[in-house]
Amino acid sequence: MSLRHFFISKVFFKNILIAIAIITVILFTSLKTLDYFTLHSESFSLPDYTNLTINQLNDYNLNNEVEFIIIDSIFDDTKPKEAIISQDPFPNAKVKRGRKVYLTVVAKMPERVKMPNLINLSLRQSLSLLETYGLKVNNLSYVDDIAKNAVLQQLYNGGVILPDTLINKGSKIDLVLGRGTQNTQVKIPFLIGKKQAEIKKLLNLASLNIGQQYFLDSEDTSILRVYSTIPQSITQQYVEMGSYIDIYYRSEKTFDFLEYIKSLEADTLSTTDSTNINNDYFEDDIITE
Asked: What is the pLDDT of residues 37-46, one digit of tens each?
């Protein structure tokens, strides 16, 4: 049989059809196998794991749907140890079974840092340096010394702490400062409407300490703002350096601070010469509508 007759014969067409069928089966089988191994059709919404601890993850991963990998740890004394701070992918993301989920958790032990040397630095410099090192200010106390607001001693747990001493990050440091020879009184900063997280820094920068804190209608720190202080901070009231200021909080969810501040402004203007009103009273960032 010639080559020309072979290409138009039934045997040739039969072999072609068989070859096409075999290729189709192979392609179909390959795609299904690939689909199985990549779990293409088994995606699901990733739960929100934040604020859970590592031990609690088992309750959310009973079928080993995902693999957890801890990539970082951060010390935070406001959260439980090994609590999850963040996750990647984010909650509600569509993922497949077997997906790796990368977690940042709260460290079991705080990071250790060296105590900086604050002696002879100003209060403002010291507060900034402590923040840089991840340390906190505890109490400010003042003694007679010509160097006003200069650090004379740095204390930790009631004793002097030397520079370069290793301590836990987040530790609280007491500062002993000079009172100066005159003008030992300072103005109480305007605090009404400020968030709780801002208060201690504002008072420390003014050479004052935060005293007792009272929560009138909520203890959710994320929604608390200052309702009142003792002594009052509305007008230019002066107290001794190192004094303690008591703070009263109310919830911004249930109390209208904008109207409250406007009413305080009206009352103050009606009883006080405008030159004596605390300039901070009119700050735009106190509260917004």
From this structure: 554 556 788 8
* Domain at 43-106, CATH from 3.30.10.20, 3.30.450.20, 3.30.160.60, 3.40.980.10: 3.30.10.20
3-state helix, strand, coil in the chain (%, to 5): 30, 35, 35
Alpha helices in the chain (DSSP H): 3-7, 10-38, 123-132, 196-205, 257-271
Helices first, then strands: H and E counts in the chain: 5, 16
What's the confidence (pLDDT) of residue 141?
Answer: 97
Residue 155 and residue 158: Cα distance in Å, rounded? 6
The pTM of the full predicted model, rounded to 2 decimals, is 0.63
Q: What are the C-alpha distances in Å from 142 to residues 145, 152, 160, 233?
A: 9, 9, 16, 21
Answer yes or no: are the C-beta atoms of 118 and 154 closer than 8 Å: yes
Q: What are the structure tokens assigned to 208, written together?
A: 């004052």
CA atoms within 13 A on the CB side of 154: 26
**What six digits make up the tokens of 288?**
């917004």
